[in-house]
Amino acid sequence: MKNSDISERLRINIASTVIRIHTAYRLRLLQVFMQAGIDITPDMYFVLKHLWAKDNGSRQQNLADKTGKDKASLTKLLENLEKRGLVNRKTDERDKRSKRVWLTTTGRKLKEKVYPLALSVVELTEQGVGHADLQQAQSILETVYNNIKR
C-alpha cells in the first residue's frame, strides 16, 4: 500500500467519525444543560444515568466500568457530584475495600429535569434516520467496539 493510500485510510475511518459524533453530542448536551440552568457536565450525566437505572446504589468500580472512566477520573467526577449534593459515597458494607455511590434525594429528583433534555438531544441526533438504519448502525458500532476492546 502506498503512503498516500495509508494516509487516506487513516484520515477517513469509522473511529474518526465516532469521535466527531461523540464530541458534538457532548457539546450539545452541555449546551442544553446550561441553557436549562442545570449545573452538570455530560460526564456527570453519564454517571447519574447509571445511578438512576439502579435503585440500590452502585460500586465505584462498577460505575468506572460502565462509564469507561479510570478510577482517578471517576473519583473527581464523584467529588463534584457530591459537592452539588447529588450523590453520597459510603464504604460498602459487604466489602470494606469498596465504596458504593448513592443518589441523594436531590440527585433522584434531577432525573425529572435532565431526562427530557437528554432525550431532546438523542432525538436531534437521530433526525432523518430510519429505525432500521439506527438498529443496524448500533449493531455495527457494537461490533467495532468489541473488536477494539479485545
The fraction of residues assigned to DSSP E strands is: 5-15%
- The largest beta-sheet arranges its strands as 1-3-2
Number of structurally distinct domains: 1
Mean pLDDT: 91
Return residue spans where pLDDT drops below 50 for at least 5 consecutive residues: none
Helix content: over 70%
Main sheet: strands, sense, barrel: 3 strands, antiparallel
Can you write the helix and strand succession as a string? HHHEHHEEHH
Helix/strand class: mainly alpha
The CATH superfamily is known as Winged helix-like DNA-binding domain superfamily/Winged helix DNA-binding domain
The beta-strand count equals 3
Question: In oligomeric terms, what are we looking at?
Answer: single chain
Radius of gyration: 18 Å
Please count the helical segments. Answer: 7
Question: What does this protein look like?
Answer:
There is one protein chain. The mean pLDDT is 91. It contains seven helices and three strands, in the order αααβααββαα. The longest helix has 22 residues, at 14-35. The chain has one domain (3-124): Orthogonal Bundle (Arc Repressor Mutant, subunit A), CATH 1.10.10. By secondary structure, the chain is mainly alpha-helical. The chain has a three-stranded antiparallel sheet with strand order 1-3-2. Helix 3 packs across helix 6 (105-126). It is 70% helix and 8% strand.
Task: Please sum up the structure shown.
The chain has 150 residues and is mainly α. It has one domain: Arc Repressor Mutant, subunit A (Orthogonal Bundle), CATH 1.10.10. 70% of the residues lie in helices and 8% in strands.
